[in-house]
Amino acid sequence: MARRDALRELQSRLAERLQAARTETARRSWLAVDCAGLGMLMPLETAGEIFALSPLMAVPHTQPWFLGVANLRGQLHGVVDLAAFLGLRPPQAPDALREQSQIVAFNPRSGAHCAVLVDRLAGLRSEDQLTADEDDEDNRSADSIGHADGANGAQTAQTLRPAAVRPAFATARWRDTAGRHWQEIDLLALAHHPRFRSIAT
Asked: How big is the CA angle at 94 (ends 90 and 96), to the nearest 5 degrees?
């Protein structure tokens, strides 16, 4: 119970800081999340509200990384397991998801009623806390995500590493003061990526 209260408090603080950060135009800010051990940054202008893990209604004949539909503030959103979609780990059944998992909705201006499931929130980051990764190479491709590995459709996680071809929604790579690498994910571009939109099997 105490853990849930702490998560709600963190969620509330993040929501307040998200709103405050959106009003600042001088500095770029990101929502930081963990997905299968990989740090990701979502620009605040492409991220929407954050929700605790909600009951999900399964949809038949969809990709393994499509978890189902959730009612978020009275609106139905399709929810994608981001780590599974990116090939960082195999898809998980909804009842196997961890309590600290969170749902990040897309900004309404994306025109898509969808959201991504992340393993853990890691707070907010601003550009004065990060430096561009000097090892980063501009190897992005709108059509490359990874390659299928096995019958379950899991992807091999090669696309988000510096030397690999990355899809267009995986933009810059950053490094924080502790030396940790962070991959920026543009949710607006992700919402329009052909594979992300192709949930049917």
From this structure: 70
In terms of DSSP H, where are the helices of the chain?
A: 2-22, 82-85, 187-191, 194-197
Q: Count Cα neighbours of 129 within 13 Å in the Cβ-side half-sphere.
A: 14
DSSP per position, 92-116: --GGGS-TT-EEEEEPGGG---EEE
Q: Using CA atoms, how far apart are residues 111 and 10, in angstroms rounded to an integer? A: 28
Cα–chain center distance at 166: 15
> CA 101 to CA 104: how far, in whole Å?
10
pLDDT tens for residues 17-65? 666 655 554 578 999 999 999 999 999 999 999 999 988 999 999 999 9
Distance, in Å, from the CA atom of 33 to the CA atom of 100, rounded to the nearest integer, reads 11
SS3 of 153, please?
coil
Residue pair 92/128 in contact by the 8 Å Cβ criterion: no
pTM over 0.90: no
Residue type, 116: V
What is the C-alpha separation between 107 and 31, in angstroms, rounded? 13
Q: From residue 184, how far is each of 8, 30, 129 by CA, in Å?
A: 25, 8, 14
**57 contact partners, CB below 8 Å, separation of at least 6:** 68, 69, 70
